[in-house]
């Protein structure tokens, strides 16, 4: 009799990882098991982001993980970054969102579009968790149409003066700097805006039923003045922010796999112990079929993200490929989380169990950084050559 397969990795995707990639996954996994899972249900209940974990997240090298070591970062490959996202989201989407925003939406644009002075000044401190960033692109009226941007920056001598508002900004009230995208006479440009600048305000969004263990904010700019030295000089137009989003979305293709695995693991344990009609729930055909279906979907998602990571590391990854994986993996995860909540019955509605928390969080994950519909249309455009937006 051959050994039983790992129920959370039926195709032994782990065997396709390098030793270094496995080590990254194991160290983040340990951190999540020991430090995150004991507190995260309570954080969600309280609507509190566990910022006391930031120094540990930084010390593990998880912030700006793929940026070169000369900037105080870990210089990991893309697959390792994906595994970081998967393990963090196995803990909670809010934790993965924090790391995604810091790494892909704030550190990456400074690295990709900034001056050497900007990189040396900000990146080592951001990697150490001493400077937290937020990413100001989405506007209250904008959503899926970022080109319709109202926030503007006007040149005034050696400075820029920014006016406008941004909405649904992760880390907004935690952040020391905001990477702000604004319309200029020269097209859309990016600016590094310290959050203590006069005229800048961040207002936390409350009454959320999703990403409760995460800080979400609205940002307001009332004649916020920053020097030319704070402009990101090496990109103009929408391709700047969209390039950042491709990096972040790549991580988001991995994250929901972790959420789905957490939900499946919980029902595997629960159905062995829960006795109904004189036998364990796990011996029921309907339950086995549901769990087999979850394992099938998780396996597909794992293989999609791993191949996407290999393409990224080869420098050949295309945004459409990211869209396909973001759409597929968010969809499988939210479906699995809801199904697991159902299998848990009444117990499934409390944050004593993980399923309802992941299901609620994934409502945000399936929406942000491109809704499911937007990603379907991106793939449709690739197939037909016709833009249906």
Structure at a glance:
By secondary structure, this protein is α+β, with helices and mostly antiparallel strands. It contains 10 helices and 10 strands.
Notes on the protein architecture:
This protein is an alpha+beta fold. The chain has three domains: 13-128, Butyryl-Coa Dehydrogenase, subunit A, domain 1 (Orthogonal Bundle), CATH 1.10.540.10; 133-235, Butyryl-CoA Dehydrogenase, subunit A, domain 2 (Beta Barrel); 239-384, Butyryl-CoA Dehydrogenase, subunit A, domain 3, CATH 1.20.140. Helix content is 50%, strand content 15%. The chain has helices spanning 19-46, 54-59, 78-91, 93-113, 116-127, 239-273, 285-314, 319-343, 355-365, 372-384; strands spanning 133-136, 152-156, 159-170, 177-184, 187-194, 200-204, 216-227, 231-232, 275-276, 279-280. The strands form three sheets. A four-stranded mixed β-sheet has the order 1-4-5-8, with helices on one face. Strands 2-3-7-6 form a four-stranded antiparallel β-sheet, with helices on one face. Strand 4 and strand 5 (187-194) form a beta hairpin. The longest helix has 35 residues, at 239-273. It is globular, with a radius of gyration of 21 Å. The N and C termini lie far apart (54 Å).
């Amino acid at each position: 009799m051959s050994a039983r397969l790992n129920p959370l990795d039926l195709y032994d995707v782990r065997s396709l990882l390098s030793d270094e990639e496995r080590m990254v996954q194991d160290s983040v996994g340990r951190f999540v098991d020991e430090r995150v899972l004991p507190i995260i249900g309570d954080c969600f209940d309280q609507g509190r982001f566990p910022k006391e974990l930031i120094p540990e997240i930084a010390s593990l090298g998880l912030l700006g993980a793929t940026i070169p070591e000369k900037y105080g970062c870990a210089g990991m490959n893309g697959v390792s970054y994906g595994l970081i996202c998967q393990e963090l989201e196995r803990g909670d989407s809010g934790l993965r969102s924090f790391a995604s925003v810091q790494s892909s939406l704030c550190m990456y644009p400074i690295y990709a579009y900034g001056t050497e002075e900007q990189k040396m000044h900000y990146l080592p401190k951001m990697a150490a968790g001493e400077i937290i960033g937020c990413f100001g692109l989405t506007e209250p009226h904008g959503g899926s149409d970022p080109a319709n941007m109202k926030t503007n920056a006007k040149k005034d001598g050696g400075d820029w003066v920014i006016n406008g508002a941004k909405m649904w900004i992760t880390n907004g009230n935690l952040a020391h700097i905001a990477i702000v995208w604004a319309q200029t006479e020269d097209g859309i440009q990016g600016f590094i805006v310290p959050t203590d600048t006069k005229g800048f305000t961040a207002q936390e969004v409350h009454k959320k039923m999703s990403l409760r263990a995460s800080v979400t904010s609205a940002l307001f700019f009332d004649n916020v003045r920053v020097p030319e030295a704070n402009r990101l000089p090496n990109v103009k137009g929408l391709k700047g922010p969209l390039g950042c989003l491709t990096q972040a979305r790549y991580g988001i293709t991995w994250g929901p796999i972790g959420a789905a695995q957490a939900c499946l693991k919980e029902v595997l344990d629960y159905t062995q112990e829960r006795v109904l009609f004189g036998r364990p729930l796990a011996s029921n055909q309907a339950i086995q079929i549901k769990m087999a279906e979850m394992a099938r979907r998780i396996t597909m998602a794992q293989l999609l993200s791993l191949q996407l990571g290999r393409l990224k590391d080869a420098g050949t990854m295309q945004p459409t490929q990211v869209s396909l994986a973001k759409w597929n993996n968010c969809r499988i995860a939210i479906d699995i989380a809801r199904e697991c909540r159902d299998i848990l019955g009444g117990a499934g509605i409390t944050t004593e169990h993980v399923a309802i928390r992941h299901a609620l969080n994934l409502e945000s994950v399936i929406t942000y950084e491109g809704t499911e519909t937007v990603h379907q249309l991106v793939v449709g455009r690739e197939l037909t050559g016709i833009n249906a937006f």
